[in-house]
Amino acid sequence: MDALMLDGNAVAGLLQELFVVEATTMVGTCRNCGAREPVGAARVFRGAGIVLRCPHCDHALGRLVKAQGRMWVDLGGIRSLELDLGRPSLPGV
Q: Cβ distance 57 to 69 under 8 Å?
């Protein structure tokens, strides 16, 4: 294995930081129109699952389905998510 290539376990700490923040305050960038808004500003539609839509262009930002003790998450309509960790980041991270 290349010295710069690791397996997914190497990001465990970063993922743990991500999944303990208040998700509605994360700023998402719409893949369709480029608008930047907190996730809490998305329009939410309920049906067989949950669909989050951009409040500017109505593009589907993500889908959430919870059933049988599992959750499926698709955030393919969000180009990026920005979260404030409350402290300066380390160089290169």
A: no
